[in-house]
Design goal:
Helix content of chain A: 25-40%
Largest sheet of chain A: 11 strands, mixed
CATH topology of chain A: Amidase signature (AS) enzymes
Strand order of the largest sheet of chain B: 1-2
Structural class of chain B: mainly alpha
Number of helices of chain A: 16
Structural class of chain A: alpha/beta
Number of domains of chain A: 1
CATH architecture of one domain in chain B: Orthogonal Bundle
Strand content of chain A: 5-15%
Shape of chain B: flat
CATH topology of one domain in chain B: Histone, subunit A
Number of strands of chain B: 2
Distance between the termini of chain B: 49 Å
Strand order of the largest sheet of chain A: 1-3-2-4-6-5-10-11-9-7-8
Radius of gyration of chain B: 23 Å
Helix content of chain B: 25-40%
Number of strands of chain A: 13
Oligomer: heterodimer
Chain lengths: ~500, ~100
């Protein structure tokens, strides 16, 4: 038996071991996290739905199964799930009024795999509507708040899951990363946030926003937890034709030998416009890696600056097609049947929030016959160019590094009036979505602001399919104490 | 980051209204004004990209190395009909929809 504040500080890997060895019970672990949720969720708005009873039932079931001899890899680990991933029987709204009342009749593949591994699904977490945003302010439920400072956003769009993990309301969080939506909030709240390689993790059961770039990602407070969760959810899934299994094995491998590694510091990510504390954290990372005999040189990705424009054209075009399915007939808020089809359908779709409307309309414009070659097609060709620039960098380097975001968390309301300012938050994260390579946000320092601290982060970027490299390098930074994610009470008190 | 000046590309309100009608999204006159202003800003921002000469690069539409991969055709349990129907706008065993 441990004190509950000790339980919520414990990493998922240790929780799983303790529950498996019956040193503690899954039910006891869950209660410690539920207590934090009841204490802090009103202030932080991390969860939009907490499945208290369902989670208790499942935790007790896991305890009974373990007594009978069943083994689990993630026994009793409480998980927070972004409100865009289907969990059978729990409401799914994508932070939108249009889906109010929808309850998925099936589990996403990632959820099915986590359940099988013995995880406990705690509830659904806040997101920008349909994952479209960089701050989690753009949700029908209202904004999530950064536990480090009440005036600041937690980043987005997976802000709810990031806050849940940072504030000790869940041991692991699931998000989706279409243009940085896992890495940016991870950076703003000081936890690890992984965007896997495109195709590494099944998207079956994830509500599609932009299929060709999005991936389900993980929030965690240790590299061990990240590896464990990744090894449970990744791998080919017949229900998502883009998935594959990489041929290295995280569970048996000691870790890639990194001391002959070469890393490239991306010049275009670390120059003008980057705030000093972010650069200092990057520098600290570089110095630490050098101590482990990793060679570090500057590297150019010449067209990096154009990625943001290409990203938004592709994401909006795909969104305009994907969101056509929300018609109020098959799921969510229901249409009246009085008027004609077009009128009622238009009325239901008026329930989309302003950012979604903006993107869907812009996407339709970029795909329309007169503008296709100027916008969507141009962005698709640019993607081949930027992919080749990354490939040529990876011919010389095993890893690229740069900041996750040029600044720490910004103020609530600071960027909501100007869409382009909000989009610029993603300037350092979208290139990895366009190119499909894996990237991890590692908390590497703090900035002073308004008499408190705000986390800043460094991004580790590996060639396609080389998550093993990322985990090995990140483990070094963890071992050296450069990154040490903490559970934090509002506002900024480390537990 | 480049500075953001006055929009260089202008999207007319009529264009926004027409697109919204095609997309079946009801917009208020205020929304049409805001969206046309925002779209002008966004498209001005992407102008630099549209001016790149990318003719020699083929488009990339998918990053997956898998090409048209089919799954095995196997038997599996269906979704629970009651759970599916509870999400529908339905009456008896019919889906209710507006007049076409």
């Amino acid at each position: 038996m441990r004190h509950s504040s000790e339980i919520v500080r414990t990493d998922a890997t240790t929780i799983a071991k303790m529950v498996s060895s019956q040193e503690t019970q899954a039910r006891e672990v869950l209660e410690a996290f539920l207590e934090r949720i009841s204490r802090y969720n009103d202030a932080l708005r991390a969860f939009v739905y907490v499945d208290t009873e369902g989670a208790r039932t499942r935790a007790s079931e896991i305890d009974r199964e373990i007594k009978r001899g069943t083994t689990y890899r993630m026994a009793g680990v409480p998980i927070a799930v972004k409100d865009v991933i289907s969990v059978k029987g729990l409401p799914l709204t994508c932070g939108s009024k249009i889906l109010r009342g929808y309850v998925p009749p099936y589990d996403a593949t990632v959820i099915a795999r986590l359940r099988k591994a013995g995880c406990v699904i705690v509830g659904m977490t806040n997101t920008d509507e349909f994952a479209m945003g960089s701050s989690t302010e753009n949700s029908a439920y209202g904004p999530s708040i950064n536990p480090w400072m009440q005036s600041r956003v937690p980043g987005g769009s997976s802000g709810g899951s990031a806050v849940a993990v940072a504030a000790g309301m869940a041991a692991i969080g699931l998000g989706s990363d279409t243009g940085g939506s896992v890495r940016l909030p991870a950076s703003f709240v000081g936890v690890y946030g992984l965007k896997p390689s495109y195709g590494a993790v099944s998207r079956f059961g994830l509500v599609a926003f932009s299929n060709s770039i999005e991936q389900i990602g993980i929030f965690a407070r240790s590299i061990g937890d990240l590896k464990l969760t990744y090894s449970v959810i990744s791998g080919a899934d017949p229900l998502d034709g883009t998935t594959l299994t990489f041929d290295w094995n995280l569970t048996t491998e000691e870790g890639t030998k990194v001391n002959a590694f070469r890393a490239g510091k991306v010049i275009e990510m670390s120059g003008e416009g980057v705030e000093p504390p972010v650069l200092e954290a990057l520098d600290r990372t570089v110095q630490t890696l050098k101590r482990y005999s990793i060679q570090i040189e500057n590297v150019n990705i010449p067209h990096l600056e154009n990625c943001l424009a290409a990203y938004y054209l592709i994401a909006m075009s795909e969104a305009s097609s994907n969101l056509a399915r929300f018609d109020g007939v098959r799921y969510g808020n229901r249409v009246k049947t009085e008027g004609n089809w077009n009128e009622e359908y238009s009325r239901v779709r008026a329930l989309f929030g302003s950012e979604v409307k903006r993107r869907v309309i812009l996407g339709a414009h970029a795909l329309s016959s007169g503008f296709f070659s100027m916008y969507y097609d141009k962005a698709a060709r640019f993607r081949t160019l930027i992919k080749s620039e990354f490939e040529s960098a990876f011919r010389n380097y095993d890893l690229l590094i740069g900041p996750t975001s040029p600044s720490p968390a910004f103020r609530l309301g600071e960027r909501t009036l100007d869409p382009v300012q909000m989009y610029l938050s993603d300037v350092d994260t979208v290139p990895m979505n366009l190119t499909g390579v894996p990237a991890l946000s590692v908390p590497t320092g703090f900035a002073n602001a308004e008499g408190g601290l705000l986390p800043v982060a460094t991004q580790l970027i590996a060639p396609y399919g080389r998550e093993d490299t990322i985990f090995s390098i990140a483990s070094l930074l963890e071992k050296a104490g450069v990154s040490a994610p903490k559970v934090v009470n509002p506002w900024g008190n480390i537990l | 980051m480049k500075p953001l000046g006055e929009p260089e590309v202008e999207i007319e309100k009529e264009t926004v209204a027409k697109l919204a009608k095609e997309l079946r999204i009801e917009l208020s006159p205020e929304e049409i004004t805001t969206i046309s202003r925002d779209l002008s800003k966004i498209l001005s921002y992407v102008k630099e990209l549209t001016e790149l000469d990318l003719g020699s690069w083929n488009p990339t539409y998918s990053l997956s190395p898998n090409v048209s991969k089919f799954r095995e055709d196997t038997n599996a349990p269906s979704l629970a009909l009651s759970a599916v129907k509870s999400n529908l706008n339905s009456e008896d065993d019919f889906v209710k929809a507006p007049r076409v």
